[in-house]
Amino acid sequence: MLKELLNSRKIPPLPVASSLEEWEALRQKLLHTLCWEEYGTPIPEPEALTAQVLEYKPRCFGGKAFFTRIQLTVKIAGGEISFPVEAVIPNSAKPVPAFISISFYSHIPNFSLPAEEVIDGGFGVFSFHYTDVTTDDNDFSTGLAGLLGSREEHSPGKLAMWAWAAMRVMDYVQELSYIDSRRVAVLGHSRLGKTALLAGALDTRFALVISNDSGSCGAALSRGKEGEDIDHITEEFPFWFCPAYRQYAKKEEELPFDQHFMLALSAPRKVYVCSAQEDPWADPVSEFLCCVAASPAWEALSLPGFSSPDQLPATGDAFHEGSIGYHLRAGGHDLIREDWQKFIAFFRS
Ligand code: GCU
Question: Atom 7, ligand 1: which residue's CA is nearest?
Fold first, then answer.
């Protein structure tokens, strides 16, 4: 039944490779196509990065963790930008794994980040507010956007800019002695879930890539998708993408890829997709099918792919056996404690 459903979407077959070396070359090609057509060409690495500690609390959550707030300053050819990053890290004798959260909030904890629970799971968490990097609108004259020159057909959109910022947080995190930099996940919800997927595709330092309710142009197949389509998203949020992407509005069938390519770009690392039952705009079915369709990238490398049953999942089902994790949560479009619990369990597995 699932196979038939997937076949009915008529998505392009995913190119795969059986050796890591071949896959990395292919992955770069696929990444280039996705960036060129959808998100815009990647922003170059920075020339310099500095971090200034603004606040430090050695003991929080009863002494289980410490808190820091730092100001990250990044220099690129066009100039310099600065944005704050907050972190809560377990007070541990050993380096800990961590999440980098691309966030709608400026501070932690918040409605979407149950920091104490993350600490209790043995993880640190770094978080930055996405609009501190560049605004979420058509203004390309301020923040990071203002440093990148004129906007052309294939220039990076805002999703690419926020993804770039998550990579700069990783630049900082990988130098910290108290973090196990081989075990750092990138995570985001909704538009920031799309962003997290892109960050994970661009930067293989992320061991796990987590998309929460990212939907259209994130973890959902575009062909046959319910809810938001390319026409809507490029009409309302044209600044998230490169201008060239608009040509696929109402022409999904002409795309040289579908979003399963995006999920596959995380291979051979791990990726997790979360959907919410009452989120037809994102379309849980298209997210689930996208996981099924991305699975061959791992399987070709003799890694476990997506161990899906032959049917759509029931609420709460999580598939942790493979390299792709998935759950469908009851309730609406949101990132909540229950989602974090599943991410933590998957990251540990
Ligand atoms: C809108 C948009 C979605 C996006 C969401 C969000 O609903 O249409 O594509 O994911 O905002 O980021 O909250």
Answer: 281
